[in-house]
Each structure stands twice: as structure tokens, then as C-alpha cells.
Amino acid sequence: MAEMKRFIAMGFVVQLDISEYWTTSVVNSTPFSPSVMPRDRFWLLMCFFHLANNNGQLRRGNAGQNPLYKLGSLYKNIVCSFGTVFRPHQHLSMDEEMVPWRGNLSFRVHNPDKPKKNGIKAYMLCDAVTGYCLRFKLYTGKSGTPDCANGYHDRKVVYLLSTIEEAAKAPCGRVAPRTGTTIENPAIVNAFKYMGGVDRSDQMVSGDVL
Fold first, then answer.
1. What is the pTM of this model?
2. Nearest CA-CA partner of 68 in 52, 81, 83
């Protein structure tokens, strides 16, 4: 168990390539990694690292098949732990994020409009002030729209959830160019200024924010 903790701790330091954890270059060397685990031992554990018993996995297309089965209970434990160690501010941000991945995966997505065009799509709930990720859910396929969502049409249909704002509409500060009438949107749209939490979380993971 102690060795597996050291194996997981290697991820505390981010390198562009796994081999760089043991590089002797003066510029890129990380003394932490060699002190935790030798390179050959790390590669051996990486080859046989599993979080679930493959014999219990249902094949794709069978009823009850779980696309995230190989993540075992670790995925659920991590998701639940995120929200217990930090008390968020009042305003939260919920948005989608792309986790880069080019391997063979049935629910891998390609979005040419994103900076990270290939990977796993994740829905994230983050603190709007700090960018801390409170919850996230990996996208594994299409599903229906929640019944509790409130939808309105801007350039396309947008579904909104709120426990603060009501469904009543309010002026948004814009005027329709053809009719000159004041445009009204649901009051929750006024809270869009707090939607930067997920973007800030992504910047922190990428190392763009100190």
C-alpha cells in the first residue's frame, strides 16, 4: 500500500512526458521523482495498474454496462471528496471542459471549436471566485435534458438551473435591432458574469494561473 501511495504521488509534479520525471537535465530535472520511485519500477507498476476486476465488466451493448467501470470506486470517491474539503462562495459556475485524450475510447469526443479538440468531455461545477472544482461528471454518451431545467432561446436553446433566481424575466440591457423593443431574458441570465469559474479551474490545471 505504501508503494502504491508513492506511485500515485508521482502525479503531484506535472511533466510533459513521463520520461522527464527522471531526467538529469539541469533545466527539467525534478529531484522529487527519483527519490520517490525508480523509473523501471514505476513503468512496471504502470503496466499492471488496474482499479477494477476486468472479469466483472459487461461488454458494450449489454444492459447495465458501465462505461466508467475500469475507474472502479476511485472515481466516485474522488468526486465525493472534492466537495468536502472546501467551502465554496455563493456563486458557482457549471460548464463543460475537455480532458485531452487520444487513446481508444468509445465516448471520446472531437470538438474542433475547442483548444483541446480531442478528449473526454467533463461537466464541472466550480467555485466562481477561486475556480476550485467541487464536482465533475464525465460524459459517456447522450442523455435527456433534466426535467427541472429552465430553457430559453438566444442564438440557440440554453438550459439553466438556479436555486437563487426565479423564472421571471428581466431586461438584459439590449434592444432588438428591428423592432426597437427591450429584450428580456430569465433573471438567471444576469448571473452569467459568474460563469468563469470553470475556465479559471482549467487555467490553474494547465499552469497558466499562479
1. 0.61
2. 52
